Every structure is written in C-alpha cells, then in structure tokens.
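Record pair follows.
FIRST:
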Amino acid sequence: MAFDTGFIYVFSVGWRRAMFYDLSPLAPNDPKEREYDVSTALAQFYTYLMFQRRFKIADQTWQRLFEGQWFPFITLKDSTVRNLIDHAANSWPLDDLSEAIAGEVRGTLPAMLLRWKTTQAFADHIEFLENASKQFLSKDFLCTSAILFPRIEGILRSHQKLTDPGGQATQTGLADSAVKMAENQRHQNTPLLPRHFQEYLEKVYFANFDPHDPKIKISRNSVGHGVVPGDECNIEAAVISLLLVDQLCYLVSKPSESVPLRSSTCNMPRR
C-alpha cells in the first residue's frame, strides 16, 4: 500500500468483527508517511481477533489452569482451548477434559513428531521423543511421563546453548531462554503467549515439592528426584508432557518457518 494513501479496513473471524484505519497520510495540516508494514500489522490484528480468548484470560483463571497443570497449548484446537478456559474460569474439574484431549493428541502426534525431527534443538533428543510417543500410543502413560519430564529440561538446555549461550542454566534461566526468541522476533500478540509460558515453566514444570506431602504432583523435580507417586504419571501427565514439548517446538523456531497450527477455523503460520 502506498505511503500517501489512507485506508479503512473492516474484517471478521466468524462472528467477531474488527475495524482498523489509518488516515494520517491524508491529514491536511500535517500529513505523515506510514512507517510500518501494513500487511504485517493486519496479520497481527487478525491473529488477535482469532485468538482473543487466550489474550484475555483473567489472572484467577490463569491460577486455576496452573493449579491443574494446564496451559492453552498452541497444538490444541481452538475449541479445546476454549473448553479449558471455561472450565478453569468456572472452577470445573479440568480432569474431565483429559480423555478428550488425549484423543486429540493421538490424532496429531504423527505431525508433532515430524515437527520435532526438523527442529535443531531437538536433534539430540529425538530417540527419547519417539520412544515416549510409542509408549503413549500403547497407553503406557507412566513411561511416557517418566521419559519426557526430565527430557524437556534437556531440550531447554540444548536450545539455550544454541541461541542464548550467555544465559544461566538454572531453572529460571532456562525458562527465560525458552521464550526469548519468541518475545524478540514475534509480535506481542502471538498465541504462543511466551511470557505466560515462561511463568508456567517456572511454577508448574519446575515446581518444587514437599517431601512430606502425601500427594506430590508431577513435575521435573518430583520425577527427577524419584518421589512422584505412580498414579500421578497418568494420562493427563502424559498428554501435558507431549503438549509441552510441542509448545517448545514452536517457541524455539523462527517465525519465518511455516507450520500448521491446530485451529477450529484455519491453519496459520507461526506468529
């Protein structure tokens, strides 16, 4: 679009409507040339309109999602994410969604594996990821969880070495490095929600545990120290670990690399 023209753009996603306008080049007293790329801006606004439920999650809802160890993972269908958000917002049991989400993940797992095999930070971990995926498909959720929860830290370390060698290899440092590329190279309205995901890694994935607690939740630390109860390595834990890996796959890849996102409306490039 020419720098000296104004425009008004009305667009929609389903029933949602939005309007964006920029008439500044037509100002009679102080016309200004447009200094941003219109195509990029409109793509960002379209993304916000499509995924606005994710961008408007209330703090209390985030807290409930984290308490249930869930996140609006990018791999999931938009309708599934809406169900997660609604359950958390209304204090409904998130466990009720585990079986349905597991079925969704089974269907997308082959595509997930293809993504992982082409991601540089995953190169040293593919054998473990493939094995964990096979265990998941055979419904051995204990093995899936036991393999993936420690291995995710390995992926975080590999990514940090490649892209942020000056970063601290602490739990906080690894979480920060995981989202740094997304924060620097993507628009702030990316549905990957990098800042919230960093918080998820720190508070949920790297959660500490009380050795005297009779019900220790699954986390990197409880698995690594061998104190997690077997019944915590269940279908929900296995599904979350796979979705966590795929979320990282998107976060550590460059925005220019196009990968189909699961959505109820369309496939989109990485934002």
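SECOND:
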Amino acid sequence: MRIAIGSDHRGIQLKAKLSTALHEMGHEVADVGTHESTSVDYPDIAAMVAGQVSSNDVDRGVLICGTGIGMAISANKFSGVRATPCHDDFEAEMCRRHNNVNVLCLGADVLGNRNVEQLVRIWLETDFEGGRHARRVDKIADLEDEPCS
C-alpha cells in the first residue's frame, strides 16, 4: 500500500517512528514533512496528504498533530477524504469497518505510551464492511456535491 504521512512540529517524533514501522510492514511511504521542529501550520501539512488521497496518488494517509483534531478538520475539506482522529485500537478498527476512513489522524500529545504501531496496523488491515455502511458512506460523499445554502 502507498501511504502519505505528515505531521506538524508536535508530531514529528511520532511521524518518524511510524514511517519506520510502515516501511517495516512493507508499505511505500511518502513523507510530506515537516522535517524540522520549527512551528508549522497543520492545515498546510493536512492539505498535502489529503490532496494525495483525494487524487488517488496514494491509497491512504496518516496525519499527526497535537490532538489529531485540527488535521482531521483540514483533511475533510478534500473531496473523497474521510479523516478522523483515533485514540485506541477499537476506534481504528471501527472507523475502517463502518466508515471506510482513508486518513488516520493521530494526536501525539494524547496517545501517551499506547502501542501506536499496533493501532496503525489495525487501521491498515481492517477491511470496510460495505452493506448498510456503504450506503451511509455514499450519502457522505453526496454531501460533498451539494451546494451550501
């Protein structure tokens, strides 16, 4: 699988750790940055990863900031992107199984000592169930095409 990964300055250490883990799992990783500890704006990083997911240049994306929330908000502005913060294995499994989430957002400041590699592995290996969930995901996609009133 080809995976784009990016972080702001608060997620740089976790991004490096996950990039290595993803490579070891056999995935191709496109690291969009940041590569410095200097403060950067998370919407800029989210746009690079979400843009690649939206255009099908990559299969999935991983974004890391302090909480994962700002990255998710930014990434969800892109057509076809379904991004959500995940804090545990259950959320990682269910967001794939029921929502076909294609951008995982992680909070470096809130994950603590959790086994983040395991969380990411679950997210990558869980299939979308389809069925009634496909109907719902299709409705979400339809919302992208509706004009705001």
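COMMENT: The chain has one domain: 2-145.
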